Amino acid sequence: MSDSTTAPSPVVLEAWFDLQCPDCFQALDDLHALRARYGDRLDVRLRHFPLAKNKHAYAAAQAAEEAFDQGRGWAYAEALLARTADLAERGEPVLLEVAAGLGLDAEEFDTALIDGRHLLTVDADQAEGQALKVTGTPTYLIGGERLDGGKSQEGLRARIEEIADRLLAD
């Protein structure tokens, strides 16, 4: 018998991002609106899909995983996405600057990028994304449905809300 006071499990929204992708930066507005609307009822999970055309995206994904280990993953991802042009131009020093700017241990970031401790997580995300037929970023997965924002983000938030509302009603 279940306890009726237990809150329902949140709906999971997987956001497949490339942290050097300007479209992913634009998608943050939608994520902020979704978090404001659903709060704890929506669990937004960052999944990594670094694109080959963005030469620092793979290192950025590893750095974001280090930020999650240090307790500031989403703050780091958002701060980094605000600097996609800077990252494209200057590369890995930007990853350490963003970490330091958030009060994270930048030296530990540098070590993590050298020792590759987050490679398996990033590789696993990328492999899973390929299996799900993710081809561009941002792409979302909610309720078993893949929504591709790599071509256009038009109407995506409304579609995510429609699916989330249905899942939360069940």
Structural description of this entry:
There is one protein chain. The protein has helices spanning 22-38, 57-69, 73-81, 84-90, 92-101, 106-115, 119-131, 156-169, and strands at residues 11-17, 42-48, 139-142, 145-148. It has 170 residues and is an alpha+beta fold. A four-stranded mixed beta sheet has the order 2-1-3-4. Helix 1 (22-38) links the parallel strand 1 (11-17) and strand 2. Helix 2 packs parallel to helix 5 (92-101), helix 2 (57-69) packs across helix 6 (106-115) and helix 5 runs antiparallel to helix 6. The protein is globular. The model has no long low-confidence stretch (mean pLDDT 92).
CA(first)-CA(last) distance = 18 Å
Pick out the low-confidence regions: none
User: What's the arrangement of strands in the largest beta sheet?
Assistant: 2-1-3-4
What percent of the residues sit in helical stretches (DSSP H or I)?
Answer: 40-55%
Q: Given the helix and strand composition, which structural class is it?
A: alpha+beta
Number-wise, the strands total 4
Series of H and E elements:
EHEHHHHHHEEH
> Which descriptor suits the 3D outline?
globular
pLDDT averaged over residues: 92
Number of helices: 8
- Tell me the strand percentage band: 5-15%
Major sheet: 4 strands, mixed
Instruction: Calculate Rg over CA atoms.
Output: 16 Å
